[in-house]
Amino acid sequence: MEHAPWSQKGHPFAAYWNLGCAEANAAFAHLIKQLLRETRGRCVLQLAGDPSAYVFLPVEGWLMTAKVDPDGARQIVDFALPGDVLDPASASMAYAAADVVTLGRGRLAMIPREGWQRYLVAHPSAAGLFARQSAARYARMAERMLRLGKSSGETRIAYAICELFLRANPFGLVTHTPFHLPVTQQVLGEFVGLSSVHVNRTIRAMARAGVLTYRGQLDVVIHDLPTLAAMAQIDPTELQATIIPSPG
Amino acid sequence: MEHAPWSQKGHPFAAYWNLGCAEANAAFAHLIKQLLRETRGRCVLQLAGDPSAYVFLPVEGWLMTAKVDPDGARQIVDFALPGDVLDPASASMAYAAADVVTLGRGRLAMIPREGWQRYLVAHPSAAGLFARQSAARYARMAERMLRLGKSSGETRIAYAICELFLRANPFGLVTHTPFHLPVTQQVLGEFVGLSSVHVNRTIRAMARAGVLTYRGQLDVVIHDLPTLAAMAQIDPTELQATIIPSPG
DNA sequence: CAGACGCGTTAACTTGGGTTATTGGTCGCG
DNA sequence: CGCGACCAATAACCCAAGTTAACGCGTCTG
Question: Is A49 touching B (CB cutoff 8 A)?
Fold first, then answer.
């Protein structure tokens, strides 16, 4: 196949949006070609309540959608990993329901919503993939709401790590080898609804129990996936099937 | 306009799915005509993890999507009110991400997912409304995750009542008059992630403060919407615009 | 009609996790 | 190089919400 500008061997992004149809791939490449931009640091792309004209497609690095309450506390609603298409629209479609923020350095495409919708209508295989992504996002949010509402801090954190581990490694459950988790303990706390202090307490306890280790600031090694999965109250294979959209 | 079998004056359901196009309305009526069924009591229509072939459309009464954890604790993920279309699919599309359960007596249509998708492709105005509904659901879940992760019990309960009040009254913010809230305190607790005891404590306190009253078991009268909205940390008009899809 | 059940209500006691504060390490930058 | 910013780590204290238990009421049902 033609080597599209956004394609990269072994990269989740390329695997997701290779639709096995040269025409659709070309249309996709054309859609995002002009729109790639670099990001670094924490950078707000969209504010909740502001007019919303774009969908966001991270190519490298992660995005997050978040909401901030009047006291300044922030809740992360979902992460978008490379290949995910993130539409922050609220019920009115014209305004955003949540903030969109970058995490560290990366590249992303901002695609005008209308262009994106035309692309979906023209390419049913792309529409199918987007529908699977949307269903996956719903399943993830449901799963996380269960943890948020009913589970202990340990379970919430174990679940979050499992989810992000599965999403960051869509091709297999590789343990004993570091995977990159570009979130500080503060951010992890904003994701699971705990203070950063309690995140720290809990992760240290998990490390002491031999479940996982940090290699440097942002790389995690899972030593004992069965125990981690038990803490998270999930079955890894099953969770993968429900929250990871099958590509192409 | 022709009086379709599902149409009913002043009913939210009819307002949502009157697409202002006779052909689309007829196709819609045809789609659900054969599939209406009555429900009563708590009744499980779909189990998480089971094969999922239908989307659910309540016509009278509410549905809920929920997840149950290994200890038997339940978290309600979202409610579906008359006119909402509820697709419980997970990432794989073939299995359900959550349980679907009825609340009390009502009527609903179970539409095979494929038929529903064909209908959306054939009728862009319906697809547009469905997209707005999906965006509204996302906005609601984001808003609720913020409360679930970061807010006090009082705020969560006030928010839940505001959300359901707005959704149950899509045509205006009518206070001082009872509206029907077909959920017990137990269920409300499962919605906001609190024990039923704490839900009771909090609602009694709100009643003592003159914010709202119960008329009978399931009908609520809001006396002081500004205070309730302040407790919920929202602006009612703004919230309405972000979580209620505009009809037709 | 009597029993059982579900629901609302309240009280007494316990605990998980928030809050605040302090220390030390590491990175980026003037 | 030294400063400031950010982050991990840990301790001490406290409170919001969970848990358990008990009682009353309405309603379904055998």
Answer: yes
